[in-house]
Amino acid sequence: MNRIAFNLPHSSLIRIWHWLTFVVMAFSLFSVLMGNVIFKPRVLTPVIQESLQHGGANITEKQAHGVAHEIHDIIWTWHKIIGYGLGILLISRFFIEFAQSQEERMAMRIKNAKAGIQDSNLDKNDLKHFIWVNRAYLLFFLILALMAITGLGMAYEDDVPWLDHMKKFNHNIHGLLQYAMYAYLLLHIGGVIISDMTKHKGLVSGMINGNR
Question: Which pTM value belongs to this model?
Fold first, then answer.
């Protein structure tokens, strides 16, 4: 195992940021599942109407749809709040990077890995893998930034006239980016689990205890 690449120490700031981001993103994805699948007005309307009618209430489909839409709006309000949290975490990650010691910064670790490729005593494939993983982190930050920007556009489209003209664009880009995020998260989690179980044991615990 190559110490210059994987299983490197992580500062407490990075570890706190990592797990906090994981929790917030999990809630964000859960709210999407709730809003787009479980509590979608089209799905929820007949359930509400049937349930209330069985209880003796006389309610039309239009009224049931109104109730379903209110529930749907509450879910997306929470999704919006969670989105603000992710935006704050993204900005904080930028400042955390510069608060790190020089050797713990992502750019320096990539630079060291590139230099290590020339060392015949080190695993070149491992170092190349490490470089690509860190480049993938940069892609993750870019996707998250674009999702935050388009999400803000959607959040204020009814209040800011020029954002209203970008409504379709923001909705389409935000929707496409969520699938890119799902793909990244699946690859990241799967890759970490496989690495931890094979060549880089202790990878997960290192992000918990710092691996120092």
Answer: 0.83
